[in-house]
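Quick one, T. Sequence first:
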Amino acid sequence: MAEVRLTTIKKAFGQVDVLHGISLDIASGEFVSLLGASGCGKTTLLRIVAGLESVTSGSVDIGGRDVTHLPPEQRDISMMFQSYALLPHLSVAENVRFPLRMRRIGNLEEQQERVRSTLDIVQLGALAERKPNQLSGGQQQRVALARAIVSRPKILLLDEPLSNLDARLREDMQVELIEIHKGLGLTTLFVTHDQEEALSLSDRIILINEGRIEQEGSPREIYARPATGYASNFLGAANLIPATIAETENGPVASLADGQTLPLDAAEATRGPATLALRQEDIVLKPVEPAELKGHVRTRVYLGARNRYVIKLGGDEIRVLARHDLDFERGDEVGLSIDPHRIRVLPDSAT
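Structure tokens:
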């Protein structure tokens, strides 16, 4: 049985429809990310699961129980907000103990022991008596996480909890979240607009676009086999190039606007007009050779370990991530190659 079951969830604010009939099952112990651009409806969906927003129509089940019209405190969920929302007058330990007090979970001794063990999980045991204003942003984030998990809820809801951290702390906390999730086995619903977070943390990603599920699947599946142009572009910022697919004696090929061709994997080929999705990291850039796909360098962006090149190809511009030791300048003609198995062909209807 699914731990969380959302059935045909619709939500409107006044005359504006925000969610258009979303149905979703989340298994016990699964880490699921709701991924999408700002305003796509992902946070509204999370708040509906939490009971902080009502539904226009549809139902929410948690643990086999219909909770659609129950308040948050009767849903056995915990939510960690983007702002952390720590109580400034309470110590770290008392902030973490707060949900145990409110829900009357255990006696004082049991609560204190659970707080101690939870602070150890987030590596803050030594800071139990400090106040929030005596902590760094990363430490405050850990306190908020400890408060969210201390009651061992059925569902842990995370609303962009890493967005206020700097890059290094975000990386550290991604590792912490993975380890805590595996250690406790909490069913987790995570909202983010950051594809790297979704790919690194999730068992499954739900990509939302304008209030509808665009695609769902494992991180590897949804990255390697995007079903639409939106999915291709949002996850990995793929290059989308119009082409015409035809069959030759050597197999299917894609013809670009300037007449150049790319060989395709037969399993991917669909005859007629289509769009090619090419990941930036899958394109190999090298000095040009005869009878090879050719482009011209428009711009080079230095990224440290790699360079990003903007290349004019077939009447379009594409972006390529290349080794840092490749050194091409604006206007240089370059050769490009890509494994046919790495080219995703999207029918025109999917773009």
